[in-house]
Design a protein that fits this description.
Length: 333
């Protein structure tokens, strides 16, 4: 079984502050460090996707990505890449940066995709992205936001590293889904799907109201271009009784209803960043992508087995082709 290990500070204290800020429509304190859901050492790809009976969900997500993502581009950041399940769907981009907090998930992605120059593997915290501003012309964040105790903080990090006019593909778990509404109206669940604050249905697993997500994106100067709704038929007996190809076909038709209402468990959004600035600089050297996640300084110095920040003096490890910005490494001697 896969597990999500919680890394960081007091989740409930941060969550209480977060909910209060949602009601007041304020972005959270940028100095707060939220907890992290860490899949280190888990068999998530195998147990949840390969053997978890989720071919329907996987194929509908593939359709949504084809409909939303540009066919080609220069540099894409895949936030929460995991073992690289979706990465082959981004092959129109010249280079893909796979970021995940779990080093072992990235190792699995390397085994799946290889170590060519097309892929850059980065272990880092989505709340403290180690990239220079305006670097990427596209960012994807699929099945990741639902682990974020401070969603606006993460979205703010995306805004920082995305170039002006860049495309952001975001998936979020929808609080306002039809099943939740029926259960609430029948008295079978205590939380309301109609209120704007997130609901934590399991430890560090959140559902979000579409209106709240739209508000956060707007405040960060994103313009929503398209909205698709997915997994309309994510019901156990339907998945057992109806062939997957039929469910996928029907879901592909219903996805377009996201332009008018969002009542499904999963919502995909295509947003464009609107701000002043030209095209991102063309950077071929991996090292030029990075900044120190602690002090923000760039460029970093390449020390072969680590990257050194000349401003704060911290060293960030490189192991088995994976750049590790989770915690600084201690230098011997």
């Amino acid at each position: 079984m896969f597990t999500c290990r919680i890394v960081g500070y007091n989740s409930s204290a941060i969550r209480l502050s977060f909910y209060r800020k949602i009601r007041d429509w304020q972005l959270p304190d940028p100095m707060t460090t939220p907890p992290v859901c860490d899949y280190e050492g888990s068999d998530y790809q195998t147990s949840f996707w390969d053997k978890g009976g989720r071919a329907y969900e996987d194929r509908t997500e593939a359709i949504a990505l084809r409909r939303l993502l540009p066919q080609k581009g220069r540099l894409l950041l895949e936030l929460g890449a995991g073992a690289g399940r979706n990465t082959p769907r981004y092959l129109g981009f010249d280079r893909i940066v796979l970021l995940d907090y779990s080093h072992t998930q990235l190792e699995q992605a390397q085994q799946r995709l290889g170590t060519s120059a097309k892929y850059v593997y980065v272990a880092a915290d989505a709340y403290r992205l180690p990239f220079v501003d305006g670097l990427f012309d596209a960012v994807t964040m699929i099945r990741v936001l639902h682990h974020m105790a401070d969603a606006p903080k993460t979205l703010g990090q995306v805004r920082n590293v995305l170039a002006s006019g860049g495309v952001f593909i975001l998936e979020f778990a929808n609080k306002l889904n039809l099943k939740a509404m029926i259960r609430y109206l029948l008295g079978r669940q205590t939380w309301s799907p109609f209120t704007l604050e997130p609901v934590e249905f399991a430890k560090l697993n959140f559902d979000f109201h579409p209106k709240a997500v739209r508000k956060w994106l707007k405040d960060l100067h994103f313009r929503i271009e398209k909205t698709l709704t997915l997994s309309h038929f994510r019901i156990g007996f339907l998945k057992r009784m109806v062939p997957t190809r039929i469910l996928v076909f029907l879901d592909s038709l219903f996805q377009w209803t996201g332009a008018w209402w969002q009542l499904s468990p999963s919502v995909f959004v295509k947003a464009t960043l609107i701000r002043q600035g030209g095209a991102p600089p063309h950077r071929q050297d991996y090292i030029s992508y990075f900044k120190c996640p602690d002090c923000g300084h760039s460029p970093l110095l390449d020390k072969k087995d680590n990257l050194q920040c000349s401003s704060c003096g911290k060293h960030w490890g490189i192991k088995d082709g994976i750049y590790d910005f989770r915690e600084p490494v201690t230098q011997k001697g």
